[in-house]
Amino acid sequence: MTGSYIERTIASLIAASERAAIAEQLAFSEGVMQRVDPRVKVAGLFALIFVVAASRRLGVIAALFVIAVVLAAASKVRMRRLAGWVWLPVLFFTGAIALPAIFLTPGRAVGLAMTEQGVRAAAFLIGRAEAASTLSALLVLTTPWPWVLKALRIFRCPMVVVAILGMTYRYIFVILQTALEMFEARQSRAVGILPPSERRRLASSAAGVLLSKSVQMSGDVHQAMRSRGFRGEIHLLQDFRARAADWCWLAGFGAIAAASLWYGR
Amino acid sequence: MHIPDGYLSPATCAALYAGAAPFWYVSLQRMKRAFNTRMVPLLSVFAAFSFIIMMFNLPLPGGTTGHAVGVGIATIVLGPWASILGISIALVIQAVFFGDGGITAIGANCFNMAIIGSLAAYAIYRMLSGRAPITSVRRVIAAGIAGYIAINLAALAAAVEFGIQPLLYHDASGAPLYAPYPLRIAIPAMMIGHLTVAGLAEMVVSAGVVAYLQKSEPSLLTRTAPGAAEGSAVAPNLRPLWFALAVLLILTPLGILATGSAWGESTPAPEPRGLHALASFWTAPMARYAPPFLKSPAFGYLLSAMTGTGLILLAVLFAGWIANKRSR
User: Fold this and answer.
1) Do B162 and B242 fall into the same domain?
2) For residue B202, what is the domain's CATH number?
3) pLDDT digits (tens, 9 = 90+) for B100-136
4) Do residue A168 and residue B10 have CB atoms under 8 angstroms apart?
């Protein structure tokens, strides 16, 4: 039981690292969406996510979901991976929330204590969650994270926020590695079964150690930045260059978003 | 509590982005002033820390597990403004990169967890910890309660956001377009899980990490403890409490000025026979707060209050004496 708690924590930390590594690998592979300018992808996919949220027709939401799946397939994203990472978790989570609505929402009875309005409400909730999650997964699986961040500048996101997001992403993996090593070290010394109170103490002290190390690390990083001439100004290398194909993609995303908004009113 | 895409209408999401924006702006300005060039690495590393803390699954009393947001401990160590930014950044990365929470709902999630959570945790922690020394147990308890209440207030805000959706947005047939449950279902559904599981996880992390830092790095707790008393085992000043107790004792005869009897204490229905048989088993020496040897009801009330208070104090002193003896 003790081992299983530490092992479960280690497994979840490893799973997060592995998922990020696979996403990065996919983002650099040769696929249709990987070739599109990141700014166009961010603008286009965010627009489609907004349309999914705004649409009042199930058919439009379903069509956007199909478009996301086709784009994913063309970008070498395996359907099995999408199902495991996105579709099933969303279906279990949102499905569990939406299921009672089928019976609790007042409206025209359609048998088995279900109502037509309840079924539609559940379909809207699950459909929106699946379509929006697939579109956002498509963005991160086909675009390296630093490029996504740089592309955020087109939304006038302050440069300092972009820099902090980039550094945070980097340090997530540093702290993740530290946490992993701490739990592995603890596991190697664990004998017998720890009571729940001891496991809580273990988790709290691990969090405390990580906090101390984070403070220490932020000081070290600051010193390193200062020694390299950092005076508070942030400059990002803007090396994106839109090609004719990117403008076509932008027009395509715009047309799909506008048509979906029109039909989904 | 991470709201996914599709649960809130675009208008609600926009309103919550707009509601969060001034807090982000003020936090950024305050951080720039307070930390200057240290701001970027400090916020980055702390946002990363908050992200990892959200992945820790904690064993909770009752056999279940839950994960904390880390808003309590981030606020106590960094202060509310830095916590607002740090938790917000962690939530943005969770939504965009890990799909935990929706992209359209980033404003709502940040408003609930980062803004409401941080400000509530700060207010409660400061109020409960007062000027207690950095290493006092009172700070551990204050941190736990602050984390618990902060996360529950954030959950309540999310529940209200869910609950207003069916009132505002439905199609022509009356089917809800977004979160389908009204307030009377959304609030209990959200709060039961947070009052019993998620709140406890936040409490365990907040109190546990403060207790750890008190022993290993108490300097990290000074940012939100201005005017904390020096030393570690300063006896609390009980004089105001003794004074308040004395005033309450003197005021006890006011109770007999009220007409009628206290609600719920009268017995209009006849006593069951079994209870009646037991009624004479024990006769209270000061029944109805009126000792038989005193004619004045006011003095009777006062004497009863003094006797009751004295007995409670004696019981507490006796329990303390036993506890001290056992610890030695």
Assistant:
1) no
2) 1.10.1760.20
3) 788 888 999 999 999 999 999 999 999 888 888 888 8
4) no
Scan residues 52-91 of B and list those with Cβ closer than 8 Å to A: 52-53, 55-61, 63, 70, 73, 77, 85, 89-90
Q: Which residues contact B268 (CB under 8 A, 6 or more apart)?
A: none
Tell me how far apart the alpha carbons of residues B57 and B67 are, in angstroms, rounded to a whole number: 5
Q: Cα(A32)–Cα(A202) distance, rounded to whole angstroms?
A: 47
Asked if residue B237 has pLDDT above 80, the reply is no
Q: For residue B65, what pLDDT band results from cuts at 50, 70 and 90? A: low
Residue of chain A nearest B101, judged by CA positions: A133
B15 touches chain A (CB under 8 A): no
Whether A196 and A245 share a structural domain: no
Mutate to test the interface with A, among B9, B44, B205 (most CBs of A within 10 A): B44
What's the predicted TM-score (pTM) here? 0.76
One domain for residues A97 and A61:
yes
Please report the sign of the dihedral spanned by the C-alpha atoms of residue A72, residue A76, residue A79, residue A84: negative
Split chain A (265 residues) into runs of 10 and give each run's mean pLDDT.
61 75 79 84 90 88 92 87 86 85 80 82 90 89 82 77 83 83 79 74 81 82 80 67 82 88 81
Residues A134 and A174 in one domain: no
| Average pLDDT of the residues of chain B | 81
User: In the structure encoding, which two tokens stand for residue A42, read together?
Assistant: 């961010």
Question: Do A8 and A127 fall into the same domain?
Answer: no
More confident residue, B100 or B261: B100
Tally of domains in chain A: 2
| Amino acid, single-letter form, for residue A201 | R
| CB spacing of A221 vs B44 below 8 angstroms | yes
Domain count, chain B: 2
Q: Are residues A178 and A218 in the same domain?
A: yes
Note the pLDDT of residue A2.
46
B48-64: buried (b, 16+ CB within 10 Å) or exposed (e) per residue? bbbbbbbbbebbbeeee
Q: For chain B, what is the radius of gyration of the CA atoms? A: 27
**Domain check: are B328 and B200 in the same one?**
no
Residue B20's pLDDT band, with cuts at 50, 70 and 90, is very high
The domain containing residue A42 runs over which residues? Answer: 29-143+240-263
Say yes or no for a CB contact (<8 Å) between B93 and A172: yes
Range of the domain at B241: 237-254+286-328
Q: Which of B46, B121, B54 is nearest to B78 (CA)?
A: B46
